[in-house]
């Protein structure tokens, strides 16, 4: 009941508001008591609107190119930073996986001089660490693919919202 009363008060308050922003009459001139239309009208400059599909394909072809096409140059270093870090994780986790895989296979030889076997004499711990690095390697590949795909999605959405109208007039009008 109270919620209904609050909604009714809010709606009547919203509907009764008037626009207080002054809108300039472009092309009008006041002479005496009358308005005279000026012969020179201001030319509205057409805004550049990027093609979302083109931005998507540019971004998928070369990461960051869709952002450059959308004139959002500042996003390109972020994309390359994310891809660079994720590729570094792929390389690092793969190398650690290979090292522990070799150490695990050499742990069955009692005369081995592998430093990882000497550091971790338990075969079960070597196997577990090997499996952990393999999972991290797989997750790094997934993260790289996600960053690559998000690059394209971001370019597509940014192209759609490039000329989204943002005004200071936040009044609600029922039609």
Largest sheet: 2 strands, antiparallel
User: Terminal Cα separation, in Å?
Assistant: 27 Å
* Residue windows where pLDDT falls under 50 for at least 5 positions: 11-16
Helix content: 55-70%
- The SSE order reads HEEHHHHH
Mean pLDDT across every amino acid position: 83
Annotation, overall tally of beta strands = 2
Please state how the strands of the largest beta sheet are arranged side by side. 1-2
Number of helical segments? 6
Radius of gyration: 32 Å
Instruction: Give the amount of beta strand, in percent.
Output: under 5%
Helix and strand composition category:
mainly alpha
State the shape.
Answer: elongated
What report would you give on this structure?
- The protein has 175 residues and is mainly alpha-helical.
- It is built from six helices and two strands; from the N terminus they run αββααααα.
- The protein has helices at residues 2-15, 52-61, 65-69, 75-106, 115-119, 123-160; strands spanning 28-31, 34-37.
- Strands 1-2 form a two-stranded antiparallel ribbon.
- Strand 1 and strand 2 form a beta hairpin.
- Helix 2 packs antiparallel against helix 6 and helix 4 (75-106) packs antiparallel against helix 6 (123-160).
- The protein is elongated, with a radius of gyration of 32 Å.
- 17% of the residues are buried.
- Mean pLDDT is 83; it is low at 11-16.
């Amino acid at each position: 009941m109270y919620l209904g009363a609050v909604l009714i008060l809010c709606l009547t308050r919203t509907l009764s508001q008037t626009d207080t922003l002054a809108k300039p009459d472009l092309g009008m001139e006041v002479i005496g008591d009358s308005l005279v239309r000026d012969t020179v009208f201001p030319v509205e400059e057409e805004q550049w609107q990027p093609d979302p599909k083109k931005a998507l394909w540019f971004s998928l072809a070369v990461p960051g190119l869709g952002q450059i096409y959308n004139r959002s140059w500042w996003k390109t270093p972020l994309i390359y930073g994310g891809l660079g870090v994720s590729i570094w994780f792929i390389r690092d986790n793969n190398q650690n996986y290979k090292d522990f895989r070799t150490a695990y296979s050499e742990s069955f030889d009692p005369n081995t001089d592998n430093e990882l076997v000497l550091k971790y004499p338990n075969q079960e711990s070597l196997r577990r660490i090997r499996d952990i690095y393999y999972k991290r390697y797989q997750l790094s590949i997934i993260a790289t693919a996600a960053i690559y795909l998000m690059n394209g999605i971001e370019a597509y959405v940014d192209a759609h919202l490039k000329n989204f109208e943002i005004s200071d007039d936040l009044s609600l009008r029922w039609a």
